[in-house]
Write a structure and sequence with these properties.
The protein is mainly β and 96 residues long. 7% of the residues lie in helices and 26% in strands. It is built from 1 helix and 4 strands, in the order αββββ. Strands 1-2-3-4 form a 4-stranded antiparallel β-sheet, with no helix packed on it. The longest helix has 7 residues.
């Protein structure tokens, strides 16, 4: 990679061409992802508060490395929660 390519890609947050990719802090995901790699800002996923609690819809409002910041979809005034991708589930396929 020559210096022009390094300068154009900056800190490698986005690939050449400027399009975000999964894992980037600015990756805008699918509203209802079908694959964990599609989870990004604005995606609706399932998360739980604890092992004895049910799974609830949450919206991704931030990404910091491999940790997602979420807000409960039905309880937007509750504090933000943090979850790793392995602690999230996808909504079942079908009509929204």
């Amino acid at each position: 990679m020559d210096t022009r390519e390094k300068a154009s890609t900056g800190n490698n947050a986005n690939p050449p061409g400027g399009k975000p990719r999964p894992g980037d802090r600015t990756f805008v995901g699918q509203p209802k992802p079908r694959d964990p790699a599609e989870i990004g800002l604005g995606s609706v996923v399932l998360a739980h508060e604890g092992p004895d609690e049910g799974w609830w819809e949450a919206e991704v409002i931030g990404i910091n490395g491999r940790v997602f910041s979420l807000r409960w979809r039905n309880y937007p005034t509750q504090p933000t929660i943090l979850r790793k991708a392995t602690e999230l589930a996808l909504l079942p396929p079908g009509e929204a």
